[in-house]
């Protein structure tokens, strides 16, 4: 096993959306357990920034608005607003869970959530090729009806299960609230930011260059990586349901990886060793972060072993050569 990292000053901890459950009740229970691991990291001497996924949560919000729209005519709510709602209520639960755990441990730190926008390039090619499915499954007739009302939307048939809207997944370029996040960190806050990868926005040059939301999805791992770079973090800590990144996953010759270089990780990713929609995005984000500055490390490990992983007793570390 590799040696412990020691006690870095600042780490970004990324929680998967599925790790937070699929209902508000489930989420509260899981956040309470997560808070114990997060406080353990702080007691090791680390300053932490928390980010999280929001896929199940945004899906729940969208489905609720879609059902209410059909039943009683409630106005539909588009993706940027649904993302903002999810950031708010996930952040609220995290603040409460962390607060409860701090109370038990007689700690007097503070936690705050920043509803975070991420600037994207309006000319990103992803906007011409939307591929990220969102929202409920629809019949062909329902999809055609929505397309007639909103010609800018794109719908595709999804594996025989119905039709779904698809949106772009552009590359994140800039965290709009970066200065606010850094200000809170400098005043010893535990900061929760960039939930779900952040709310995608672009410059609106018809309105003096102000920001406007766009219906898109930022990859949450790339959003977490950008947050780690902008916050000058030493470590990007991607918490998942498994203890290690593995090659030949699920096969008799599966091998868990403990420490690999960014070059080695890139070669394995290019060979297709990691799941396209699960582990590969994490590994790609880890490579980008490890290469961003000498000495930076990305750790991928299990949520329930966060403290042990940070101490070098579990997890996979990706470092620059």
UniProtKB/TrEMBL annotation:
<dbReference type="GO" id="GO:0005829">
    <property type="term" value="C:cytosol"/>
</dbReference>
<comment type="similarity">
    <text>Belongs to the carbamate kinase family.</text>
</comment>
<dbReference type="InterPro" id="IPR036393">
    <property type="entry name" value="AceGlu_kinase-like_sf"/>
</dbReference>
<protein>
    <recommendedName>
        <fullName>Carbamate kinase</fullName>
    </recommendedName>
</protein>
<feature type="domain" description="Aspartate/glutamate/uridylate kinase">
    <location>
        <begin position="10"/>
        <end position="64"/>
    </location>
</feature>
<dbReference type="InterPro" id="IPR003964">
    <property type="entry name" value="Carb_kinase"/>
</dbReference>
<dbReference type="GO" id="GO:0008804">
    <property type="term" value="F:carbamate kinase activity"/>
</dbReference>
<keyword id="KW-0418">Kinase</keyword>
<dbReference type="GO" id="GO:0019546">
    <property type="term" value="P:L-arginine deiminase pathway"/>
</dbReference>
<dbReference type="InterPro" id="IPR001048">
    <property type="entry name" value="Asp/Glu/Uridylate_kinase"/>
</dbReference>
<feature type="domain" description="Aspartate/glutamate/uridylate kinase">
    <location>
        <begin position="161"/>
        <end position="300"/>
    </location>
</feature>
<dbReference type="Pfam" id="PF00696">
    <property type="entry name" value="AA_kinase"/>
</dbReference>
<keyword id="KW-0808">Transferase</keyword>
């Amino acid at each position: 096993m590799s040696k412990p990292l020691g006690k870095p000053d600042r780490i970004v901890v990324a929680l998967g959306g599925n790790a937070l459950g699929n209902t508000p009740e489930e989420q509260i229970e899981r956040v309470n357990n997560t808070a114990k691991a997060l406080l353990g990291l702080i007691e090791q001497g680390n300053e932490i920034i928390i980010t999280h996924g929001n896929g199940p949560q945004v899906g729940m919000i969208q489905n609720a608005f879609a059902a209410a729209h059909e039943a009683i005519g409630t106005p539909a709510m588009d993706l940027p607003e649904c993302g903002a709602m999810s950031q708010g209520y996930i952040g609220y639960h995290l603040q409460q869970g962390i607060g409860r755990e701090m109370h038990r441990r007689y700690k007097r730190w503070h936690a705050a959530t920043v509803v975070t926008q991420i600037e994207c390039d309006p000319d990103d090619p992803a906007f011409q090729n939307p591929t990220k499915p969102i929202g409920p499954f629809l019949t062909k007739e329902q999809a055609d009806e929505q397309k007639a009302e909103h010609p800018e939307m794109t719908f595709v048939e999804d594996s025989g299960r119905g039709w779904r809207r698809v949106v772009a997944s552009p590359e994140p370029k800039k965290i709009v609230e970066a200065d606010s996040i850094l200000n809170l960190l400098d005043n010893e806050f535990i900061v929760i930011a960039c939930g779900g990868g952040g709310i995608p926005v672009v410059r609106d040059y018809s309105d003096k260059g102000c920001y406007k939301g766009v219906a898109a999805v930022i990859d949450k791992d790339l959003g977490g990586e950008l947050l780690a770079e902008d916050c000058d973090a030493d470590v990007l800590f991607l918490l998942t349901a498994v203890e290690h990144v593995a090659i030949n996953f699920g096969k008799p010759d599966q091998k868990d990886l403990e420490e690999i270089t960014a070059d080695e990780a890139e070669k394995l990713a290019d060979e297709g060793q990691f799941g396209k929609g699960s582990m590969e995005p994490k590994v790609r984000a880890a490579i980008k972060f490890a290469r961003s500055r000498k000495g930076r490390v990305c750790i991928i490990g299990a949520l329930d072993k966060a403290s042990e992983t940070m101490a070098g007793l579990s997890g996979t570390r990706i470092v620059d050569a």
